[in-house]
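Entry:
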Amino acid sequence: MKQQAQPQNIKRHHNLILEDRSTLSLSGVTEVDCFDERIIRIFTELGELTIKGRKLHVDGVSLESGDMKISGDIWSLHYGDRDKTGALSAFGKLFR
């Protein structure tokens, strides 16, 4: 029996698990926009996600699988526009 090749543009599910406000596990990550110890901005299958806190650290990220782990003192998770699932243009980043 012949198997069909999987299309490259398969949508992955986006999930997150927050444990004790100190460890965040994410799936469905498509791009990491920026990060430092106070803010991490990523794009997921469902749009932009901004994580704010203190002493934030990216413990691991795989854009192939879409998985990401973050640790630190997590204060907030904020979803942005659902339609912006990719990178903004350089012009758009300038006015953010």
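Confidence is low (pLDDT under 50) at residues 1-7.
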